[in-house]
Design goal:
Blueprint lengths: L3 H10 L12 E3 L5 E3 H9 L24 E2 L1 H17 L3 H5 L8 E5 L4 E4 H5 L1 H4 L3 E3 H109 L3 H5 L2 H9 L11 H8 L6 H19 L1 E2 L13 E3 L5 E4 L18 E3 L8 E9 L5 E8 L16 E7 L2 E4 L5 E3 L7 E7 L4 E6 L5 E6 L6 E8 L4 E5 L1
Parallel strand pairs: 7-11
Antiparallel strand pairs: 1-2, 1-3, 4-5, 4-6, 8-9, 9-20, 10-19, 11-16, 11-20, 12-13, 12-19, 13-14, 14-15, 16-17, 17-18
Helix pairs in contact: 1-3, 7-11
Length: 481
Amino acid sequence: MASAASVTSLADEVNCPICQGTLREPVTIDCGHNFCRGCLTRYCEIPGPDPEEALTCPLCKEPFRPGNFRPNWQLASVVENIERLKLVSTPGSDEEDVCQEHGEKIYFFCEDDEAQLCVVCRQAGEHRAHTVRFLEDAAGPYREQIQKCLECLRKEREEIQRIQSRENERIQVLLCQVATKRQKVIFEFAHLCQFLEEQQSILLAQLEKLDGDILKQQDDFDVLVSEELCRFSNLISELEEKNGRPARELLTDIRSTLIRCETRKCRKPEAVSPELGQRIRDFPQQAIPLQREMKMFLEKLCFELDYEPADISLDPQTSHPKLLLSEDQRRAQFSYKWQNSPDNPQRFDRATCVLAHGGFTEGRHTWLVKVDLAHGGSCTVGVVSEDVARKGELRLRPEEGVWAVRLAWGFVSALGSFPTRLALGEQPRQVRVSLDYEVGWVTFVNAVSQEPIYTFTASFTQKVFPFFGLWGRGSSFSVSS
């Protein structure tokens, strides 16, 4: 029995030069080359550039007469034998390539019924009026459709893979945020427990001192009362004795005795001094720092857990030429020397300011600004709207799309419609800026003492950016989450 490789090699020798498939109803033309009858007929029907020019062989270009087709029965027999060998040498091919009804090789495809046909099926009446094509010819358009579908499906698959990758990264970010929040809760509660233990010790020590002072004053009171009782008991005994004597003895020095008794004033001692009583009444005031710390703790905890730390970096495309930015774009320093910065529509040309990358159109975000004004100057921090003026004078107020505070040497101002100097417990050196886009809050807090600085209320309608400004030699700031 012939091997599959040898059968395939023989089949290649009986291929039609036009359709590249096995010869079907082979015919020979004048030059001796063989073609499928159907392929050669269609070739002859194709109009050439010169209708009068004779047809030439598709292989050797020799002229031939269209009507001079000679059936090559011997070659047809060879093709048939090769087809039988292919059926025998290819497992399962007899069931797949042979018509189940007529046992003939399937060569054709009916477009109307989507049926695969053999020669006998094609001649049947039910398919005569239908569009019937060779299998390869019929498969061509479907291959093109399949290719288009494959391209679309592959694009969809790539999109799903991109979504999967993006969402997996997002999940990892969320897991990191949850882990960070967990550490913050542990840290804040540990700090609170330490504070509560310290406060408990302080309050108990104060109560212990009050307890000792009360007992001491009780002892003093008991001594004083005993002395008074002793004096009054002596006077009472003296008068009782005087009253029991005869008249002559009773009248002796009677007037001085009565005056001494009548002028004797009773001291009315107090067991608790007014000062100690006031200390006892004022003791609840000692818990005010505890109450304030608890309130601050809850506010800080809710703040830390609620706002999303923002990864802030400065945008050099917006930086004024007098600002020196660090390589990591997280620190800026003022300099009177202008940098070689190309002008562009995004850059501030008069206000010595810089914006952060990105910006926000939703959500709750927070970032930390560390300010260094050791050599004087001032620093402005806040947020600005996307369309804030970059060229010319910049008015730092909400009407111009700026919500910011200015930190200078010795004072802090809220840059509202009219700048307001703020009365703070201490000069902030680290400012926590928080943005609630939906609610419209821009909040500033002393990041060290947690003392509130100022809160703007706005109605945001476009993207807003973290905003920073510097003035004065040596002044600088750095940003972090």
